[in-house]
UniProtKB/TrEMBL annotation:
Organism: Leucobacter denitrificans
Coiled-coil region list: none
Keywords per UniProt: Isomerase
Entry similarity comment: Belongs to the enoyl-CoA hydratase/isomerase family.
Stated name of the protein: Enoyl-CoA hydratase/isomerase family protein
Listed GO MF terms: isomerase activity
Stored InterPro entries: ClpP/crotonase-like_dom_sf, Enoyl-CoA_hydra/iso
PANTHER family, per the entry: ENOYL-COA HYDRATASE, IP11341P-RELATED
């Protein structure tokens, strides 16, 4: 794929993006526009461009192949973009710093073109939930997820995969043991890499409910048995919900996210191995998240025609910003523990063996 349409900040300020591309088409796949932001422009132009960026239906991606100008006025504009790729470093969480600006921009545009509906709804959800408290934001996320469950992109993904066998029920999918004022919870389906299926979810919620109700429990530690803390939702259960409204109620009333948020000041997740989907989204809601040095992170849902649905549209932007969340999830990029630490996705990296044993 060639570079998408590219404009300057002056073009954006003058309203040329919509004149060049015409009316919004929900069936269009090339909906990304790159905005070059690596040359100085006036404060007035930056502010007019920000207003235009707020009103366009296009997905705007900032690109800075040279030094990104650093100022509060530039930040105002970058905040209105979906994300920005730039070569120079800094602490701005609206920017993904990379030596491969064009490659990353093309990769993101291609990913959006493959799943324009889920990409757009993901961006809308990130923006809509930014000012909400966590419980309300989880409601919005789940409603958007339900809409996409009935969409063509997810149906296409379902049709293109070989359906896995249904997981057998097991005796103890979650272990909980208490020592003093600490409750230690372990996801215990190592043969399924602790996939976040209905049985494991229900048992985890049960353990977290006990912890929330018992104020004598001062610390909750959650980890996982086997080679992975949690490999995400159980693929054998994907797409099986016949009633999307009921599935919404299960996600919001019966999911772990709201409980982890309620416990955030006294819960710590200790994760390891390949962490996928819910295995990233739920721990990121905790007040303390520790990763083994060999931990990897992947959010593949947008590439499946969905959005993160276990709390990720809420937990990720609160840790790494909605701009990096957009780039990470839409491209289904793998990142390692050190990258996660530098972004603030995790609070500490330490060997799993060094974790406190009860």
């Amino acid at each position: 794929m060639a570079l998408p349409l590219q404009i300057t900040v002056e073009d954006l300020a003058a309203g040329r993006v919509d004149r060049l591309l015409g009316d919004y088409d929900p069936e269009a796949r090339e909906i990304v526009t790159l905005v070059s932001v690596d040359h100085p422009v006036s404060t007035e132009t930056l502010h007019r461009a920000a207003v235009r960026a707020m009103s366009t239906d296009r997905i705007l991606i900032g690109v800075a192949r040279r030094m990104l100008p650093m100022s509060s006025d530039v930040d105002i504009l970058l905040e209105e973009f979906a994300t920005t790729f730039a070569v120079n470093g800094g602490g701005n969480d609206s920017v993904v710093f990379t030596d491969e600006v064009d490659a990353r921009a093309i990769g993101l545009a291609e990913a959006v073109a493959r799943n324009p509906h889920s990409s757009t709804i993901f961006l809308d959800t990130l923006r809509a939930t930014a000012s909400l408290d966590v419980p309300d934001a989880l409601q919005v996320e789940s409603l958007a997820y339900s809409a996409l469950l009935g969409g063509g992109e997810f149906r296409e993904w379902l049709a293109g995969r070989e359906a896995p066998s249904s997981p057998p029920m097991v005796a103890d999918p979650v272990l909980a043991r208490r020592k003093g004022d600490t409750l230690h919870i372990t996801l215990n389906r190592p043969q399924r890499r602790n996939a976040y299926g209905a049985q494991l979810r229900n048992e985890l919620v049960r353990a977290l409910t006990i912890a929330e109700a018992d104020e004598s429990i001062e610390l909750v530690i959650v980890d996982g048995a086997g080679t992975s803390f949690c490999a995400g939702g159980d693929l054998a259960e994907f797409g099986l919900a016949a009633n999307h409204s009921e599935a919404h109620l299960i996600r919001t009333r019966g999911g772990a996210g709201r409980l982890v948020d309620a416990l955030r000041d006294r819960i710590r997740f200790e994760i390891h191995g390949p962490c996928v989907g819910a295995g990233v989204e739920i721990p990121a809601l905790a007040g303390r998240l520790v990763a083994d040095p060999h931990t990897t992170f992947l959010l593949p849902e947008v590439s499946m025609g969905l959005i993160p649905g276990a709390g990720g549209t809420v937990s990720l932007p609160r840790r790494i910003g909605r701009w990096r969340s957009f780039a990470l999830c839409v491209t289904a990029q793998h990142i390692d523990a050190e990258q996660a630490l530098s972004w603030g996705l995790v609070d500490e990296v330490r060997p799993r063996e060094a974790a406190i044993e009860l």
